[in-house]
Amino acid sequence: MPRRTMIEAIRDAMDVMMSRDDNVVVFGEDVGYFGGVFRASQGLQAKYGTSRCFDTPISELGIVGIAVGMAAYGLKPCVEIQFADYMYPAYDQIVSEAARLRYRSNGQFTCPLVVRMPTGGGIFGGQTHSQSPEALFTHVCGIKTVVPSNPRDAKGLLISAIEDPDPVIFLEPKRLYNGPFDGHHDRPVTPWSKHDLANVDDGHFAIPLGSAAIRRPGEAVTILAYGTMVHVAETAATEAGIDAEIIDLRSLLPLDLDTIEASVKKTGRCVIVHEATLTSGFGAELCALVQTRCFYHLEAPIARVAGWDTPYPHAQEWDYFPGPARVSRALIETLEA
Amino acid sequence: MPDPNLIGDMIPQDAAAPSAEYPPLRLHVPEPAVRPGGTPDFSNIRIPRAGQVNRPDVDVDAETIRDLAFSVIRVLNRDGEAVGPWAGALSDTELLEGLRHMMTLRAFDARMQMAQRQGKTSFYMQHMGEEAVSCAFRRALNPGDMNFPTYRQAGLLIAGGYSLVEMACQIYSNTHDPLKGRQLPVMYSSREHGFFTISGNLATQYIQAVGWAMASAIKNDTKIAVAWIGDGATAESDFHAALVFASTYRAPVVLNIVNNQWAISTFQGIARGGSGTFAARGLGFGIPALRVDGNDYLAVHAVAKWACERARRNLGPTLIEHVTYRVGAHSTSDDPAGYRPKTESEAWPLGDPVIRLKNHLIVRGAWSEERHKQAEAEILDSVISAQKEAESYGTLHSDQRPSARDMFEGVFADMPPHLRRQRQEAGV
Fold first, then answer.
1. pLDDT digits over A299-330, tens only?
2. B204–A255: do the CB atoms touch at under 8 Å?
3. What mean pLDDT comes out for the span B216-234?
4. 0.90 surpassed by pTM
5. Which residues in chain A are contacts of B415 at CB distance < 8 A?
6. Mutant choice from B169, B190, B214 vs A, greatest count of A C-beta within 10 A
7. Which of A23, A61, A313, B274 is the most exposed place for a label (fewest CB within 10 A)?
8. Which residues of A touch B416 (CB under 8 A)?
9. Would you please indicate which residues of A are annotated as catalytic (active-site) residues?
């Protein structure tokens, strides 16, 4: 089985879908000839021509706006917003348009569209290249929100997203593009080639949206995480010597609540980890759901570890980032509570 | 407005003292020529005589017709004759049908406006004075073409043969509402009639029309898209993005601006800036831009035909500014007496589109005052009969309305578990 980086897996997913379905088109800023600033679409224009993979003007509103019109026509656009931080001009098109076409037209018009966005920090990108806006999407009815944590999932989930009949926001943790990240920024970078989840099948395979994965079984405490924080949580549990069960949510909406519920009922403890800012973050929703479903099984308060409620800083990136030390501390406190 | 004599007192103590070279800066806020109580004045609107503007070939270089963005294409003159190079495309039968479409729209508006006042629905928006724009444009379209309309283009539906009963059912949000009560009244949707679901958020659909047109080109299809926006909403970024993308990819799209002079209470000078006309917005993008007399059925049709021809021949987008006047209120929620002279619509120099087409048909010998009166009565009957049928399926506050269960359907193709749980909790 070939080993791929996450960026290669994403490219492969688009390649597979473009070859299977003439209606799949890929576009965005620097996406065509150059293949994207992270090279996710490298080679696709040469292979499929300029009418299926092309560069756009620098207008996120325009990129998503034309994608909505194309999707209503019957195409399946898979567009790239260069950084999730740049999506705000397109937000109205996502929230008021893409998310609602099916509902408001009673199914006359639909919007099978994927918006890919590199997300999260850890690359010294400062406040405009590091944000994690997933909660701004999960709060919107009519769209799905997906965050892969490894190459295999990235390919299988992106294929599902492109095949989905409704709009999907596909958030790609950019720190994971070329290797898993254990949260220790001062240690040598690990490549994907040494990771089991970099074994990515060739051809078409789909991982359904709405199914979580248990990355590490355990009995003492449940950790709910997604994207980069799945790897950070694994490091923290190992370093703290705690028998944690780590659930990689993969898809935030739809959410695999059954897997979460079963795990927390088993362990009786829950720590939620995300890189996005704390207040009104997706962790708040998870916290509410877990306490409603598992209240009588809980032996400790549910803990949240998240980015501080500040803009993502530049020089203080590693003071901001919820690294293994903070996650370990939360695990220990939850076990001692 | 502050007393100018007091402005000196309002300058903060630490403001720099005015120098001889640079007087203090002052903000410019455009004002309409007249406010309520004043005498309407449209002397600033330059209107050329009918027939004066030339008709270029459809493959013209946009650079060479810049003047069309500052003039007004008109076909019907004061005597009701069709004159000039844009005249002559429509037969008596077609024009009579066009007249009937506009009269139907006007009668439907009157009945629905009244129904809203009677509490049968929450909201309505009428077209009074703007009927020619959407009714005449529709005639230039082919089956499969797609409009991305605003809330004031119901003429596209009526002229496209959509059922008045379905329109009224949508307005009443009753059991036969094709949109199951999910949308505000008049936010119609009919894919079959080339009418994209109306958002209600302004301008968002302008860029979507460009995307739809690009998709048609990507698939080597023959369909074109038509975008619609009002004068006020051209200020939105979506409008400008649409012009960038349409010109960059030469999308087969017609970009319409309906300049009806008023954005609720805000006169068109607030959105227009210093460019002179809205059509002139197209020039910086190299998009052929035309202004047309929006109250002249023949002129709107001729310009629409020209622009659609360009799109069909893969010559790219065209921008059209329809110069018209919103005679009624913006919606059932505002009173124009609060922001413009009551008699302003009577002073509007381009007249009434229905009367102008009627007079033209009389001049042609195809129509008469008597037949017009008779048609008015017949049309009113058919509108009332459609209204009655729709009311037999319920009105907004009656018991006959879409079920609460419908509310949960159609958010996604397949209902995800969390929505299913919420529907169960709601007990529906």
1. 999 999 999 999 999 999 999 999 999 999 99
2. no
3. 98
4. yes
5. none
6. B214
7. B274
8. 210, 253-254
9. 129
Nearest-CA residue of chain A relative to B407?
A103
Q: Give me the half-sphere count of Cα atoms (radius 13 Å) on the Cβ side of residue A277.
A: 12
Give the gap in angstroms from C-alpha A56 to the nearest C-alpha of chain B. 8
**pLDDT, chain A, mean:** 97
Residues B381-408, mean pLDDT to the nearest whole number: 96
**b (16+ CB within 10 A) / e for B137-168:** bbbbbeeebbbbbbbbbbbbbbbbebbbbbbb
Mean pLDDT, rounded, for B115-119: 97
Nearest CA in chain B to A99: B411
* Residues on chain B touching A96 (C-beta within 8 angstroms): 199, 201, 204
Percent pLDDT > 90 in chain A is 99
Between strands B266-267 and B262-263, the pairing is antiparallel
What type of residue is A284?
A
Nearest by CB to A106, from B182, B212, B219: name it: B182
| Cα–Cα dist A57/A77, whole Å | 16
Query: Do strands B262-263 and B253-259 pair parallel, antiparallel, or not at all (unpaired)?
Result: unpaired
**Does residue B16 surpass a pLDDT of 80?**
no
Does the distance separating the beta carbons of A51 and B218 come in below 8 Å?
yes
Q: Tell me: cis bond preceding A254? Omega within 30 of 0 counts.
A: yes
CB pairs under 8 A between A and B: 141
**pLDDT at site B43:** 87
Whether the per-residue pLDDT at B13 is higher than 70: the answer is no
Closest CA to B190 of B138, B235, B233, B240: B138
B139 contacts B304 by C-beta, under 8 angstroms? yes
